[in-house]
User: What shape does this take?
Amino acid sequence: MARQRNNAGMMARVLPLLFFVIMIWVLITVVSTAVKLLYGYMAIPLLIIALVLNYSVVTDFFSGLIKDIKEDTGKGLIKALLVAAGYPFVFGYLAAKAWMKRTLGTKRPSAKKEEGDYIKYEEVEEDEDFLELEDIDKQKQKVKQTQTRSNDDNDYDDLFA
Assistant: This one.
């Protein structure tokens, strides 16, 4: 009997470990296959898709990268190296951003305003008395309260006297 329990205990320890190792292997295989596909076949089509959908996303990204290199050379070069190493992921990000901008549209107002352009606004009528506050200089009358209890035989009050 004791020998059977020991074998069952051994299998109960080995099976989860074996399952964990197999799952890690499957995960690594799937991720490496996806990365190989991205680097081998999908990077250039993703860039072309981004350019077709909204070319300004790509030009803004690379002009921002050049601006970073000019303003802070160290940080800009590190960003450029990371973009060069992970270019399929960057192209995928640019394609997704271009697709989102095309489907949702740009909600932000344009930063370039020509001189003389007016911003549309609505004039709001204000009441004259919307900020009237009470006068704090007035003295408030204090109302004296009468004591309801008697002070006879109160030992607690004697402690503080």
In short: The radius of gyration is 37 Å.
